[in-house]
Amino acid sequence: MDVETSIEKKNKTAAWFSAMRLRTLPLALASTLTGAFLAMEQHEINGLVLLFTALTTIFLQVNSNLANDYGDFSHGTDNEERVGPQRAMQSGVITEPEMRMAIVLASSLSLISGVFLLLVSPLAWITRGVLFIFGVAAIYASIKYTAGKNPYGYRGLGDVSVMAFFGILGVLGSYLCQTESLDLTVLLAAISIGAFSTGVLNINNTRDLENDQKSGKITLAVKLGPQKARFYHLTLIAIGCGSFLVYALMHFEWGWSWLFLLSFPLFSLNAFKVFTTKKSVDLDPYLKQLAITTFLFAIMLGLGLWLQ
């Protein structure tokens, strides 16, 4: 193998990893882990169910990331004026047919993993059927965010989708697959994770606001404008912290189960930094910081409940 061929393969591999955006996976796993850890209050976690819940979530997130790369490139949103890191298709290393095949593969893996999850979960068949429908809807939503004609992410509905699928469905679905039952107060925890996840999207959209507006991608941040988008971010962080505090007051005795509070200063720092950072290009680090903080919140929650 000559040096030039080796470099081309290396660039292609790097482009695929870039397209999958692995840094978003901890955020996606936060919903799965939160639901499973809250189920720990009732009985021991089913490891096999947790494994397939995590795999399904990962495949869905990767599929969403690939479709987002494909959709934004197809609509001309990823161009030389974009503030964030260069996308995979934008770089020219990955072609449209290759990306379409990758989306089909990720969608298929999501579906297969989701079916295995439902089969290993101790659920009634009617519940499995309902969750299967929601799972298919999640796969469809992950593709239609920016891909295809009239994508909903270009009409300001991305925030609603993130709250619905990576917040409410993610946490409640994980909890339900572990417990065979549904405690509606878990919705408070689901809203919490959904708000933090939506906050990550809002940072991304606030960073890309000017270019999105020029390209016709009308995100909620574009509708709000840069200043109101930052106020919106403060609101999301406040809702995320407040919702889970209400859940904890309803369910937890004082002690190790409140260990999750150690993550709250990091959420507060993120809110402050995003609100006070005026240059769009300087917002990018706080996207990753909020994703990692949300994952850390879930881990601290699980550790605290285990120690309690």
Give a brief description.
74% of the residues lie in helices and 0% in strands. The chain is mostly helical.
Question: What topology does this entry show?
Answer:
Blueprint: H1 3-20, H2 25-39, H3 47-74, H4 88-91, H5 96-120, H6 125-144, H7 158-179, H8 186-207, H9 209-215, H10 220-224, H11 226-251, H12 264-276, H13 284-307
Helix pairs in contact: 2-3, 2-7, 2-8, 2-13, 3-5, 3-6, 3-7, 5-6, 6-7, 7-8, 8-11, 8-13, 11-12, 12-13
Question: Could you explain the architecture of this structure?
Answer:
There is one protein chain. The chain is mainly α and 308 residues long. It has a single domain (29-307), classed as Farnesyl Diphosphate Synthase, CATH 1.10.600. Helices cover 74% and strands 0% of the residues. Helix 3 (47-74) packs parallel to helix 6 (125-144) and helix 12 (264-276) packs antiparallel against helix 13. The chain is globular.
Main attributes of the structure:
308 residues; mainly alpha; Farnesyl Diphosphate Synthase; globular; disordered N terminus
Q: How would you characterize the largest beta sheet?
A: none
Which class do the helix and strand fractions yield? mainly alpha
Give the radius of gyration: 19 Å
Flag low-confidence runs. Answer: 1-8
Number of domains: 1
Annotation field: number of helices = 13
CATH architecture: Orthogonal Bundle
**What is the end-to-end distance?**
57 Å
Bin the helical content: over 70%
Q: Please tell me the overall pLDDT.
A: 88
CATH topology, which one?
Answer: Farnesyl Diphosphate Synthase
H/E element order: HHHHHHHHHHHHH
Kindly estimate the percentage of residues that lie in beta strands according to DSSP: under 5%
Any idea what the shape is?
globular
What's the CATH first level? Mainly Alpha
The strand count comes to: 0
